[in-house]
Each structure stands twice: as C-alpha cells, then as structure tokens.
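Aim 2 progress update. The chain analyzed this quarter is reproduced below.
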Amino acid sequence: MVVVQVRGLSSAKRLYQSIWYQSSRTITSRRLMQDPISRMKTTLDSKMVGKSGIENLDLSWDSLLTSIHSSAPHKAQLILEQGLEKLQKENEKNRDIYLELIHLCGKIQNAQTAMRVFTLMENQGLKPTSIILNALISAHVSSGNLITALSIFQTMQNSEDYKPTSHTYNLLISAFANHGNSKAMLAWYEAKMASGFSPDLDMYESLILGCIKLKRFEDAIRFYEEMLPQIKPNTSILYNILVGLCERKDLVKIRGFLKSILDHKLEINGCMINKLVGFYCELELVKELEWVLVVLQEKNTDLDFDVVSEIHNGLIRVYAKLDRLDDLEYCIGRMLKDGVSFRSHKDVEMVVCSYFRKGAYDRLEVFLEFIKKSHKVARSTYELLVAGYRRGGLYEKVDLVIKDLEIVGEGESTLL
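Predicted structure tokens:
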C-alpha cells in the first residue's frame, strides 16, 4: 500500500511539473512576442527559460521559433544567439544539444548561426557525426546555399568516421527538387542507388514532388509505381500524384488512381478531396463527382465527415451553376438526408441565384424553408433575396424577407 502511495505521489509530481513546464513555455512565447528587443535577453535569462530551456530543445521550440521568426526575425536570431552563448558559458559537452540547436537554425533558414554552433562544438573537443553533418547540410539547403551543402557532402565522403547516409542523399535530392533542377535531382537519386542504399519513403516523396513541380508527370508516375510494391505511400505522395493527373486532365487515370487508393485501403484526406472537387467543379464534371461520392461511400464506411460534406457541396455548386434545378433539389435532399449541411453561405447563395435566374420563386420558397432547419441564413443571403425579389417586382416578398431579418435580430437599415 505504501508503494502505491509513493508511486502515486511521484506520478502526480511529474504531472504537475509537466503542466507547469508547458504553461511556462506558453507564457514565454507570449512574452517574447510582446517584449521589445532590448528586454529579450532578460526574458530569455529568466527562470521561465533558464538552463532547462537549452536542455529541452524539443518540438515546442520548433513551433516557438518558427512563429516568432515569421513576424520578428531579429527576435528569433536573438533566441539562437542566447542558446549559443549558454552552450559556450557552460562548456557544454552534450553533442545532442548542439545537434538540436543546428536543427533549429535550419528551421529559420539560418545557416550562418548553424556553422557557429558546429564550430563551437568542435572547439569543445566533440567530434562530428553523420547525423550532425546532415543537420548542417539541411540548414544550408533551407537557406538556399547548395554550394556549401555540397562541400559538406564532400567532407563526409572523404571521411572515415562520418560517411554520407541514406538521409544525406535524400536531403540533396529534395534540395534540387525544390530548386527545379531535374537533372541534378535525378543524378542524386542514381548516386544514392549506386551507393547501395535502399529506396525509402522520404526519397520517393522528394522525387515525386520534384517531378510534379517540374511537370514531369510520366517520371512521377514511374516513381510512384516503382515504390508501390515495397513502400506504402503517404498522403503527401498521393496528393501530388493526384495534382499531376488533374494537371493532365486525364479522367480515366484519375478514376483508376482513386480505385487503387481505395483497394489498397490508403487514406484519402481533405486536401485530396478539395483538389479533386475543385478540379471537377471547374470543368463542370458532375458525373465524375457523382461517381466519387458513390464509390467512396460504398468502399469506405469510415469516411471522414468533411470529405463527404465537400463532395455534396461541390455537386450543389455545379448543379446550381448549370441551373439544373431538378438535379439540384435532389442533391440537396440527399445531402441533408446524409446529415450534411451547407458548408458556406456562398453555396446557399449560388442556389438562390439559380432559382432567380430560372424565375422559380415558389421553388425558392420551398428551398428556404427546407434549409432553415439546418443552416443559419447569413445577412448577405437576406440581402441577395431582397435584391432578387425587387428585380422580379415581388415587393410583398421583399417585406417578408425584411421582417424575417428583424426576427433574427440582424436589423434592416442596409436593406431599405
């Protein structure tokens, strides 16, 4: 019983310390954003950061530094400088801390400070490793300094203790893919294979992204098909392949690709559906959209609600644009039956405009009564209704809409 109490006390203490530490990070982030630069050093030296901040350079520091850098790059630089100063004063011998600080330099594209951290590490008598040099390459790649990155690679290649790893090659493949250099990208891919490393997910992700950016769609498909037997693609790869197929407007291959994803029980996320729905809506391909809705519901019982909602609303937008009122009303009824409502008041307004264009005022009234149960009508929608009824000379309807607006407390001054 005593053991249980001691363990419980210990767990509670650890939990309390964890909550305090995360809370202090939030306060520190807020303070760092608000404090003038002249007070930054004081804040960073306070107990809220202290030495523990240097010893715990984890993912929360990634987000902290990135958010500060986006709005105040000088402050982000000061945070790195303070970390570097603490390492120097404390004669730090933990190589992992230097690695993390180099990694953070790469997050804000600061290769110069990364090199200073690396030099300090060597001055402390710590030998580099392949992992640390990879982080240094990454920092230079993120800064756009490919010449120095390649120089570091040469250093690794000529060494005995820190040879290039599979990740080293992936970094350079990704670097040249992002810089739009297909020749160098493919050359580094071939060099990796020639060095005896196995292909991996990161390599294929960089290659496929690079091929799509460079509009080398055949190469992208080739790499995708090459990886499938041995490596499961992630959502980033699936999205980029879909982007390529949409760019080529290859409807047959898009269908085949989606069937393959479903057959292999891979994830179809919101980004992919947004891309697909946007593509089909732009070309007004309602049959393809209908097919996507049916096949997803048939083969995926755990389909994300937002995915279903986006497809339903995409269909409504296209039918409204085409003024196909019968199909439009069927689609709205089906959507509501599936428990899905309109995602945006703009979609509602597209439907309203379609009814106005067709002069179907009675059907519009039915539609409005139908959706009020599941959708809050926006002020802009009321304004659209007033304008539409006025154009049609239906002034009684105008008065009724204004009264409805008064009931929901929106006011009527801009409608008169």
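The CA atoms of residues 200 and 230 lie 9 Å apart. The longest helix spans residues 2-34. These observations will guide the mutagenesis experiments scheduled for the next reporting period.
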